[in-house]
Design goal:
It is built from 4 helices and no strands. By secondary structure, the chain is an all-alpha fold. Helix 2 packs antiparallel against helix 3 and helix 2 packs antiparallel against helix 4. It is elongated and about 55 Å long.
């Protein structure tokens, strides 16, 4: 799997024109990316957990869409709370 870091690199290069602390902004960008990865991971777990047939609610035409939207919202809200993001952030920060 190849990770696309072009946007983060482009943003860090654009910040050179400003008088901004590069390490602080790089850390902020890295933290945002690790939070997004954790949100993706949580969404995958929620998709698997919610994939079972629930007998309480009948199937609707848009139930898959609503479940997907719910899982997106929950994963975004929960990202940064499980510790995966912080662990990956610290690992990547050491590797610089």
């Amino acid at each position: 799997m190849q990770v696309d870091t072009s946007v983060a690199l482009m943003n860090s290069q654009n910040l050179k024109s400003f008088n901004v602390d590069k390490s602080a902004t790089t850390d902020t960008l890295l933290k945002e990316q690790t939070d997004k990865f954790e949100a993706f991971f949580i969404k995958q777990v929620l998709d698997i957990a919610m994939s079972s047939d629930n007998k309480l609610y009948p199937k609707d035409a848009g139930d898959k869409i609503y479940k997907s939207m719910y899982n997106d919202t929950m994963s975004t809200a929960l990202s940064g709370q499980f510790g995966f993001s912080e662990m990956i952030f610290n690992f990547l920060k050491e590797g610089r």
